[in-house]
Amino acid sequence: MNSKSTTLKGRGAQLNVPNRFFELSHEQRDDFLEFCRKEGEQPDKNKTLYLPVFPKTIVNKVTSPDVGMMYSMNPYQGCEHGCVYCYARNSHEFWGFSAGLDFERRILVKKDAPKLLEELLKKKSWKAQTIVLSGNTDCYQPAEKQFEITRQCLEVFLKYKHPVGIITKNALILRDLNILKSLAKDNLVGVNMSITSLSEETRRILEPRTATTKKRLETVKILSENGIPVNVMLAPIIPSINSHEILPLAKAVSEAGALSIAHTIVRLNGAIGEIFTDWIHKTLPDKAEKVLHQIESCHGGTLNESRFGVRMRGEGQIAKQINDLVNLARHKYFKGKRMPRLSTELHEQYKFGQMKLFNC
Question: Domain Radical SAM core, which positions (predicted)?
Answer without folding.
Answer: 62-311
